Amino acid sequence: CFLSASFLLTVCVLDSLLCYYCPLQHKGKSCPKITSQCLPDQRCSSSKGHYGSLHILSAQGCVDTELCGSHDITSYRGVKYNVSHTCCCKDECNGWPKSDTKLKMLHTEIVSAFTASSILNVTISGDH
Which residues of 9-39 are buried (b: 16+ CB within 10 A; e: fewer)? Predict the structure, then answer.
């Protein structure tokens, strides 16, 4: 059985893509829902900036095809980060940038529930 390599590789054959855009910034910072049109030799990308093993920065937008799957060192506000680029080749496939707002709200709810439970426990324990 012979399989051609062309069946194993995903190739983008598009004039230009429409991708979500957010500049390189702290991963928890919110970003407006902006799209950008890529040049024919670009792909949609979601990029992550790491400082050691910590994911600190995120970016989205169009990148040149040769950057897809690569890592580079980028300086952001005087600190060097290892930035990786993950690409896709469908319109808006790089997902709308999201902030950590839901995560922060969940954390607040958990802390509030824990505090309320502790107060209730002290009140019930004090009634004996």
Answer: eeebeeeebbbbbbebbebeeebeeebeebe
pLDDT tens column, 36-91: 999 999 999 999 999 999 999 999 999 999 999 999 999 999 999 999 999 999 99
Q: What are phi and psi of 121, to 5 degrees?
A: -65, -40
Q: Which two tokens stand for residue 18?
A: 């429409």
In this prediction the pTM is 0.65
Between residues 18 and 122, the one the model is more confident about: 18
Phi, psi of 82 (to 5 degrees): -90, 110
Start-end of H helices in the chain: 5-8, 101-126
Contacts of 99 (CB under 8 A, 6+ apart): 28, 29, 30, 31
Angle at 31 between CA 73 and CA 72, to 5 degrees: 10
